[in-house]
Amino acid sequence: MALAEQFLLDALAYLECALGFVSYVLLRVVGSPYGRYASPQSAFPVPARAAWVLQELPSLALPLLACAGARAERLNRWPNCILLGMFLIHYAQRTLIFSLLIRGGKPTPLYSFVLAFVFCTYNGYLQSRYLSQYAVYSDDWVTDPRFLTGFVLWLAGLLINIHSDHVLRNLRKPGETGYKIPRGGLFEYISAANYFGEVVEWCGYALASWSIQGWAFALFTFCTLVTRAQQHHQYVLKHF
């Protein structure tokens, strides 16, 4: 049974890699239906705050369930605990903090919400199950250069992402509408600093985990967010 699930987790990781490439191609063709790029005629829009909480929730709940499980065999090892903690910290911030700080926010199309919920369930199961049951690390993995470099990248990406979200939330004063070019932090150098931070974060996580499961997540994140970043950059060039 254990071997069968381990094979399943590897297969799901490779499938996630393939889905990342497919998503890249599709998003390059049709664009990302998100935020200001979503059609105002989209059927069954989901309020922004509710959409963020519900779609991100599986990636928070599933690792917590893995931690609470009586048979979380690998969580007696520091590398597994730290890696799962890195995953949990991101999604706790996304689900419980970021979503509550949203000011207004455009509704999310139902199909975008459903796809995000499915992905968070899929990837939440993949990462939490692998780290809690099957990932084998020696205790000194936490001193390995790959782990240390990955952890620093993860932390830097997390902080960039949080700071960039703060800048975006405070772009407009109460009552103001329309888009403004964000200033401060990495927005002085790149137009989508928030996406850049998240890509760096998960590449760091992948390096620290040194697993196909971690790299699959990083690749999928890169493929989806780089298309959003390109779309946004073209919008900025066109309108400003």
From TrEMBL:
Provide the alphabetized UniProt keywords. Differentiation, Endoplasmic reticulum, Lipid metabolism, Membrane, Microsome, NADP, Oxidoreductase, Sexual differentiation, Transmembrane, Transmembrane helix
Catalytic function, reaction form: androst-4-ene-3,17-dione + NADPH + H(+) = 5alpha-androstan-3,17-dione + NADP(+); 5alpha-pregnane-3,20-dione + NADP(+) = progesterone + NADPH + H(+); a 3-oxo-5alpha-steroid + NADP(+) = a 3-oxo-Delta(4)-steroid + NADPH + H(+); 17beta-hydroxy-5alpha-androstan-3-one + NADP(+) = testosterone + NADPH + H(+)
GO cellular component entries: endoplasmic reticulum membrane
- InterPro entries per UniProt: 3-oxo-5-alpha-steroid_4-DH, 3-oxo-5_a-steroid_4-DH_C, SRD5A/TECR
Q: How would you classify this enzyme at the top EC level?
A: oxidoreductase
Q: Where does the protein principally reside?
A: endoplasmic reticulum
Q: How does it sit in the membrane?
A: Multi-pass membrane protein
- GO MF, any single term: 3-oxo-5-alpha-steroid 4-dehydrogenase (NADP+) activity
Q: Does the UniProt entry include the keyword NADP?
A: yes
Q: Where are the transmembrane segments?
A: 7-30, 82-102, 108-126, 147-164, 205-226
Under the heading Pfam families, the entry gives: Steroid_dh
- EC number, as in UniProt: 1.3.1.22
Q: Which residues form the 3-oxo-5-alpha-steroid 4-dehydrogenase C-terminal domain?
A: 107-240
Q: Which domain of life is it from?
A: Eukaryota
Where in the cell does this protein reside? Endoplasmic reticulum membrane; Microsome membrane
GO biological process, alphabetically ordered: androgen biosynthetic process; cell differentiation; sex differentiation
Q: Report the sequence similarity comment from the record.
A: Belongs to the steroid 5-alpha reductase family.
Primary role:
Converts testosterone into 5-alpha-dihydrotestosterone and progesterone or corticosterone into their corresponding 5-alpha-3-oxosteroids. It plays a central role in sexual differentiation and androgen physiology.
The entry's protein name is 3-oxo-5alpha-steroid 4-dehydrogenase (NADP(+))
